[in-house]
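ok trying again, last paste got cut off:
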Amino acid sequence: MRIVVTGGTGNIGNALLHALAGQGHRVHGIARRPPDSGVGEVTWSALDLSDEASEPGLQRVVDGSDAVVNLAWAFQPMRRAAYLRRASVGILDRVARAALSVPSLHLVHVSSVAVYSPRRSSALIDESWPRHGIPGATYSRLKVEAEQRRRPR
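nice, full thing came through this time. structure:
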């Protein structure tokens, strides 16, 4: 299976690459700054997915793949909300557009507990709990927006 991992240099991405190593998959990592030395047999592409100009390169990497795991997400700088939106929800839009153009490709996008609305008791909640995020938290608001996407724009 050919698997593309966006955000492969982040904490979750690095762990996923280590988990996939030696499992017989062809793995392609995408990062703004790929590492000099990688995990196992990972092929890397240097793409800034927050930039619309990355779309042709992203499409070339995604074409012929079986799965894309989208882990790319920006956390900083919090004072630059427009950049964070472009570097998070915008990335999801670009990755989803590329993935939807490849028949039978599986797309995995990682969400966050931050999408859930605050609870008012210590009772456990399940997946049916409202997902409106945490008021005033940029990360939470953007994760909610990403989850509400139906088709990339």
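cool. The longest strand covers residues 26-31. The two ends are 28 Å apart (CA to CA).
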